[in-house]
């Protein structure tokens, strides 16, 4: 595994665990952490030994949001001498280029990478998660929270706006009303409220958090076809932006037709008839169907 500075990665039983590892800073998010997490997800996408990804935090926090050690200059790209790569010039300029690559926020770079992932992603939220600590979870598939977990879309209390593409993800997860209630107030709320608001899938005692996340991951690893899971993940997420069910029907139909003749489906059916566990032969790195990635098409036949 790659040696990182601010995260720890471990693969066991085909499960990659990414642990945010700045416990003395409550795992506050930095440019280094962003870069390392993106790298870890990219490697996971091409590694057939990884079937599921779990993200958690070291110590008593999941991620306490952006590292605010730069004080008032924290979010001012023009004032960060330590991050010159972010400085695209003064936004007050009449000719400012809002499409400059340097304008992009770091949280969004990460969540878009997670969005592209072909493996299921589980958040095991062990403690406080605010700001990017919460919005990064929006692009993950299943969120399991410890009873000690806390959440907060605190942007309005810092004078900024939600980032990490959460204005797209969050309303789709919890509905527009709940998303606005949390983002308007910017308050921090507990795991019980996160569950009631349908942001998390379940809440467990702290000592059961990682075992429960691994149990969910293990069920996927032991019983499913990797290519099917990769397709399902992208079908569901990308389907959220479709404007008519016919678009879903087109993608479903391609999947049923192409997968129907695959070695995986033959094995899945025979294993069922023979009443034994299936041993799916196909892998994500080389056996994705020819219509994938379908969203790159601009015309439909």
Short characterization:
The chain is of the alpha/beta class and 301 residues long.
Strand content range? 5-15%
CATH first level of the largest domain = Alpha Beta
Shape field? globular
- Write down how many β-strands occur, each being a DSSP E stretch of 2 or more residues: 10
Q: Taking Cα atoms only, what radius of gyration do you get, to the nearest Å?
A: 20 Å
Structural class: alpha/beta
Please explain how this structure is put together:
With 301 residues, the chain is of the alpha/beta class. It folds into two domains: 7-220, 2-enoyl-CoA Hydratase, Chain A, domain 1, CATH 3.90.226; 224-296, Lyase 2-enoyl-coa Hydratase, Chain  A, domain 2 (Orthogonal Bundle), CATH 1.10.12. The protein has helices at residues 31-46, 106-115, 132-135, 166-174, 176-185, 191-196, 209-223, 226-239, 245-260, 263-273, 284-287, and strands spanning 7-12, 15-20, 52-57, 61-63, 121-125, 128-130, 142-146, 150-152, 188-190, 202-204. The protein has a six-stranded mixed β-sheet with strand order 1-2-3-5-7-10, with helices on both faces. Strands 4-6-8-9 form a four-stranded mixed β-sheet. α1 packs parallel to α2 (106-115) and α8 (226-239) packs antiparallel against α9 (245-260). It is globular. The mean pLDDT is 93.
């Amino acid at each position: 595994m790659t040696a990182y500075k601010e995260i720890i990665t471990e693969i066991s039983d085909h499960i990659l665990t990414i642990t945010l590892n700045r416990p003395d800073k409550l795992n506050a998010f930095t440019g280094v952490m962003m870069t390392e997490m993106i790298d870890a997800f990219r490697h996971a996408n091409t590694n057939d030994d990884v079937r599921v990804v779990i993200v958690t935090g070291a110590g008593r926090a999941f991620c306490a949001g952006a590292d605010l050690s730069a004080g008032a200059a924290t979010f001012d790209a023009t004032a960060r001498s330590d991050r010159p790569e972010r400085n695209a010039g003064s936004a007050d300029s009449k000719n400012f280029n809002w499409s400059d690559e340097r304008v992009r926020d770091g949280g969004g770079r990460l969540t878009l990478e997670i969005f592209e992932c072909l493996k299921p992603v589980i958040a095991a939220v062990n403690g406080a998660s605010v700001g990017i600590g919460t919005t990064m979870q929006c692009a993950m598939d299943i969120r399991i929270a410890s009873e000690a977990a806390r959440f907060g879309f605190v942007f309005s209390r810092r004078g900024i706006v939600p980032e990490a593409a959460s204005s797209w993800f969050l309303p789709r997860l919890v509905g527009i009303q709940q998303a606005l209630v949390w983002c308007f107030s910017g308050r921090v709320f507990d795991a019980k409220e996160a569950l009631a608001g349908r942001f998390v899938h379940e809440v467990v005692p702290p000592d059961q958090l990682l075992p429960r996340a691994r149990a969910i991951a293990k069920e996927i690893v032991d019983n499913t076809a990797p290519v099917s899971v990769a397709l399902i993940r992208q079908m569901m997420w990308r389907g959220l932006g479709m404007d008519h069910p016919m678009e879903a029907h087109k993608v479903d139909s391609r999947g049923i037709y192409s997968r129907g003749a695959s070695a995986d489906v033959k094995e899945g059916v025979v294993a069922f008839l023979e009443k034994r566990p299936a041993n799916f032969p196909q892998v994500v790195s080389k056996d994705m169907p020819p219509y994938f990635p379908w969203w790159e098409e601009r015309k439909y036949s």
